[in-house]
Amino acid sequence: MKIYFHGATGDVTGSAYHVKTKHASVLVDCGLFQGGKEEKAKNRQRATLESGKLDAVVLTHAHLDHIGRLPLLTQHDYEGPIYATQATLDVARLILRDSYFLQKGDLDRENRKRARSGQAPLEPLFTEEDVLRLKPLIRAIAYNQPVQVAPGVQARLVDAGHVIGSASVELTVEEDGKKKVVVFSGDLGPRGAPLLNDPVPFERADAVIMESTYGDRNHHSLYDTAVEARKIIAKVIEAKAKILVPIFAVGRTQLLLYLLAGAFRKKTLPRFPIYLDSPLAIEATKIYGKHNELFDEEAQSMVKSGDLRENLQSAKFCPTAEDSKALNNVKGPCMIMAGSGMCTSGRIMHHLRHNLHYPETAVLMVGFQSPGTLGRQLVDGKESVSIFGEEIAVRASIHTMGGFSAHAGQDELLKWFAAVAPSKPRTIITHGEDRVRKIFSELIRSRHGLRPECPNLGDVIEI
Ligand SMILES: [Zn+2]
């Protein structure tokens, strides 16, 4: 078989791996390239995905960098099945709709600019119709239930512990009377983290295509981060001030709510009002609730006993713009969770504009902040920032909470790989910056005597 690498080669976006045999053609993930102009331009090289000849698509999880190019398939008349867990398919529907509207907003702005300078307008990457045409193609599969997805190709999904419904994909591929097993790690979650189960490792594979997002370092411990967050929150609550949390809608929002419920239950924090001010995060939280059978044991028992609901009574959803505006007049103590996670757009911008100049305000940064974003400026300690063209003094305290990552750190990645290493798989490292891939590959080489490969965009590997 041949595997074509259509993304996540030397960076962490655009995951898409095309497995081809004499009889079958299967795409694992179909992610969007995200980042600067150069990255985004790669999304338009759609011919490489060869949708017309595909038998099936299998998804690891519903983050945009793993599903965002799916509408390009239907745009090119793909009518085959799209396999994933039910939770992934539920979240994917939400994320793709959101992505469509974000893309449309960006494009309208760009085209107004182009019109003023006499340039022809740009076509959208995909249309709402392309998104809607995905719906009849989706096929839910459960963890650990092998399914024939194409002639001679069987897929089995196991829990990757990254976000709800996330999976590693094992393909058993039969060609010329020989069977080979190829494992795609997908994004792997941390071990021992609350709410979700740990990633399930594999014992045998002929080839492993593995992510390496944090292949160069370990995270702060989640426990230490949670203790630190609790101390900061307790202080702000006592001062009757506001805590602002720029959130990523799927994953960390639900982890934070779960940790807060735990703190209320154990009375390590007094109950205070929490406002979830993000329609996307609200919908994602409902999907987490619907699929609570995928929670870890402790979280499931908190659901069954009613403790989770009981302890989250002070959490209020704010779906409408009016709900959001009303928060300007709400007095502390309270926590406002709003998107976007890097403070590049969304409702958090308004809350920052209204509250950054108060020294009692605390801002909790729970995720990675890219260079150039407002979130990064705050983390870097800028004394004033520009929001909607207005210069705002930053007197609030800004706290970086490094341990809430949804990704496995270096040690956890190595541990996952150690389980499959004795079967001496061909090892292919993707989904990491080149510098990081090299560091991680070297660790695998020295520990297991294997020679990992780091393919580039468009490369083909024969197995
Ligand atoms: Zn992910």
Automatic annotation (TrEMBL):
Gene3D superfamilies: 3.40.50.10890, Ribonuclease Z/Hydroxyacylglutathione hydrolase-like
Residue intervals of the Beta-Casp domain: 253-378
Entries under SMART domains matching the protein: Beta-Casp, Lactamase_B
Protein name, as recorded: MBL fold hydrolase
One matching Pfam family: Lactamase_B
Domain Metallo-beta-lactamase: 13-248
Keyword hit for Hydrolase: yes
UniProt-recorded Gene Ontology molecular function terms: hydrolase activity; RNA endonuclease activity
Keywords from the named record: Hydrolase
